[in-house]
Amino acid sequence: MTKILEESPILLQQPLDAHTHLLRLGARQIAREVQPGQFVHIKQISSGNSLLRHPFGVAATDLKNGTVDIIYREIGAFTRTLTTLSSNDTLSVLGPLGHGFDVTCHRALLVGGGTGLAPLLFLASLLGPQKADVLMGGRTKSELFWQNLYRPFVAKIFVTTDDGSCGTRGTVMAALPSLLTQGYDRVYTCGPSPMMQAVAGACAAQKIPCQVSLERYMACGLGACLSCTCKGREKRLKVCTDGPVFWAQEVEW
Amino acid sequence: MVNLLNVNLAGIPLKTPVIAASGTFGFGREFAELVPLEELGAVCIKGLSLRPWEGNRGQRVTQTPSGVLNAIGLENPGCDYFLEHILPQLRTYKVPVIANIYGHSVQEYGEVARALDTDGICAVEINISCPNVKQGGLALGTDPAVITEVVRAVKKNTHKPVITKLSPNVTDIVCLAKAAEKAGSDALSLINTLLGMKIDIRTHKPVLGNIVGGLSGPAVRPVAVRMVYQVAQHVAVPIIGMGGITCAEDALEFMMAGAKAVAVGTANLYQPDTVHTLTQDLQTYCEEKHLSNLQDIVGVALPQGKKSMLYSQGVKG
Ligand SMILES: Cc1cc2nc3c(=O)[nH]c(=O)nc-3n(C[C@H](O)[C@H](O)[C@H](O)COP(=O)(O)O)c2cc1C
Ligand code: FES
Hints:
The structure holds 2 protein chains of 2 kinds.
Chain A: E1 4-15, E2 20-26, H1 28-33, E3 39-44, E4 54-57, E5 60-62, E6 67-73, H2 77-84, E7 90-97, E8 108-113, H3 117-127, E9 132-138, H4 146-150, E10 157-161, E11 168-169, H5 176-179, E12 186-190, H6 193-205, E13 210-213, E14 229-231, E15 236-238, E16 245-247
Parallel strand pairs in A: 8-9, 8-12, 9-10, 10-11, 12-13
Antiparallel strand pairs in A: 1-2, 1-7, 2-6, 3-4, 3-7, 5-6, 13-16, 14-15
Chain B: E1 7-9, E2 12-14, E3 18-20, E4 42-44, E5 61-64, E6 67-70, H1 79-92, E7 97-101, H2 106-115, E8 123-127, H3 137-142, H4 144-156, E9 162-165, H5 173-182, E10 187-190, E11 194-197, E12 199-200, E13 205-206, E14 212-216, H6 221-232, E15 239-242, H7 248-256, E16 261-264, H8 266-270, H9 274-288, H10 304-312
Parallel strand pairs in B: 3-4, 3-16, 4-7, 7-8, 8-9, 9-10, 10-15, 15-16
Antiparallel strand pairs in B: 1-2, 5-6, 6-14, 11-14, 12-13
Helix pairs in contact in B: 2-4, 4-5, 6-7, 7-9
The structure holds flavin mononucleotide and FE2/S2 (inorganic) cluster (FES).
């Protein structure tokens, strides 16, 4: 697996809802290498006095045009800066980093919330409707623009919202247990940690293999600085290189 | 190509004076796909203690203006694991390896040094100054009497050149440098990180799990240059200068202040090809300035009378 450092022009900046945006980067070599679940580590070329890179799971690639898409939410200084960039700007992109999803499944349920749905989208595009359904959780209806993004790649879309404005009322856990009896042989989950922990627990109860994609504050993304480690069942895990995707049973919640 | 960059550092022949700083370059292998490791002067590996160490809880790294605060807490797999599983692979890279070591007591420093007194390690760097470990850490690094004890314990247990890495969190760096030299240290590294902290005003809590952390990166460079400049006037052993080096110009500053070699730390974390670019630019600098070797500029910024000390050690030759 090769890691590449590219200077990537911004090709598209598209708002998906009030706070979520899709960013398309010209990164031909990374597009060729990256697997679903892997991430790219991004900084501005001249980033002034903020030094570190920021990790984003890849949401889509286009091999013909050599592009990589990420989907981000405005949550901090860096993502706020990202929203101000346009197609004249260039970012420094390092990737692909980390280990992606194991795709040896027949019928998978993808369970995500928030921007956790971004790396799962790339996975869905690889698995396709023969193999993938998605269960997405959101606070309210307006967050579920994700349905449109997933529609081409999955057979069924299940939705939960905290306020009941769309789909089942509650978290993904309101819908998950009954879905798990419908013949899935794999669950992939990415989103807030409490959600993933609950999903992993439900899968363990039904003996369905589950992969989780963890998020940790990362500096190097290369396994060098140990800013991202966490406790695993058997050994300490580096989220950036041993993960971010793990089998649920490897993780000590 | 004539080698304009080679240097002999305390008996260790290095291809270039550019070293990857401890804790920011893993065990070298993490960067093997992004930089030609054989081009480096040396790789200084993540600090090792005798037994595995889990490090600090909570968030370990955060950004500050032009800097990074870290509180990793010296997580490491321990000497045995390193010797069995990591060193064999390290030996296959054609680059000298400096082992950065840490002990929770004076005695443990000696034991780690002995465990690592093996082929494939070219020198030992004593991390006497990490601010992130509660037991001892900082206290050890700031007391000249303790530095003396630690350096002696390490010297007694190794055949390798010993480098002492000093803490900048002191009022008189020269006094500590002299203590390390007198105790037999073959070289000095300066500086380690500066103690700092950051508070999240939304949560009303410190950002780092360890509350305080070590500040590094360009923000600390002027402090580091000042310390190298001060120490270079009072010791005869060679100095490895570090603290916020991002490019050849930064490295030259340290060398002019009296550092025979330099180390790049934080920059590796965000621009992983820094050591490669920096080395090439130093080579270009030598060519443009018609230097016979980059060592010609070591200490040129020091006050007149003080340069003679460096020249008498053969820094120039
Ligand atoms: C994430 C991180 C981990 C570090 N770990 C160690 C270590 O294990 N041992 C050590 O002696 N210094 C350690 N340091 C200090 C660096 O080696 C270096 O002395 C310091 O960061 C100043 O240089 P810089 O500004 O180029 O990073 C660490 C620094 C950082 C940023
Ligand atoms: S981010 Fe540096 S080790 Fe994971």
